[in-house]
Automatic annotation (TrEMBL):
Pfam families according to UniProt: NAD_binding_10
Organism: Janibacter melonis
CC terms in the record's Gene Ontology section: cytoplasm
UniProt domain NAD(P)-binding: residue ranges: 7-137
The protein's name: Epimerase
Amino acid sequence: MKVLVTGATGYVGGRLVPRLLAEGHEVRTTTRDLDKPAPWWGDRVEVVEMDIGDERSVDAAIRGVEAVYYLVHGMDGGDFEDTDRAAAHHVATAVDTHGVQRVVYLSGIVPEVDHDDLSAHVSSRLEVEEILGRSSAVVITLRAAVLVGSASTSFEIIRQVSERVPVQTVPAWMNTQVQPVAVVDVIEALVGALDAPGPSRHYDVGGPEALSYAALLDRYAAIAGLSRPQVEVPLLPTDLVGSLVAALTDVPSPTVRALVQSLHHDMVAAEDDVRRDLLPTGYELVPLDDAIRRSLADPRVESADDPEQADPMGPLPQDPSWSSGGDTDASLLARSADAVRGAVDRVRGT
């Protein structure tokens, strides 16, 4: 099948493309800059220039493919909702114009609460799903919560907070449940979504275990060999927590704040149909402890002299500079001071 992968140089896309190639699919990827160095698998795909915000370039990129993977997420600016909405409309229009048979969209778990109570991040993801779902294609949406794997934004936040903060202050409202899932399991489901039966629908994708965020931090610390006592703190404002976490980690700050906003509700799978419809018969999901261990591979050892043979759970060459634990040389004291200053500024509205 001829497949377009948008967001192919991102975390999930960069791991999905070689898996699709291994399955024999013909892959087209997009970039905003053709002069940018190609990923390690770049010589095996067709690359076209595309700006997701430009309707004409989206139309040209989609022309001639049978399926589209929509892996574009905007969380790096205050107008990400408008950007995501326009991008989804551009893709849906091109899909209709060129008769694309299938769209596969990776989204996030949508908690069972009133729409007005959803975070801006989750609300935008749901809106994109609805826009794509109104196209003429069969649209398969995978909704996942925390993706476990080196370079996953959620996992890197957990890793960097755990490694950099000796005593973890956990907001009382962060006792909600989450169902982490290994990125290799998500990749397997994404590949399976190309052949899933219609009509359009979403699938919740969760790992074998659900637990609280505090318990997840505890589990990470134990597996990483860290001693990290926890102190529950009531009445910590969400914006304050987002600012503190953003300052203490190397993950882009707008992304951190958007994700923290989503922690107020349980992020667990409401159904398990993905095992029946998208995963191979007998496929076993990676247990949480194993997923964390595999994600902690040392990049100096595992850094892919031969990325084709590397574990996708660990580091890969195209991962961002803030992954694999980020900048470990930066002073914790300096980070803490920056975190406090940033939090005070946000509280004051400056």
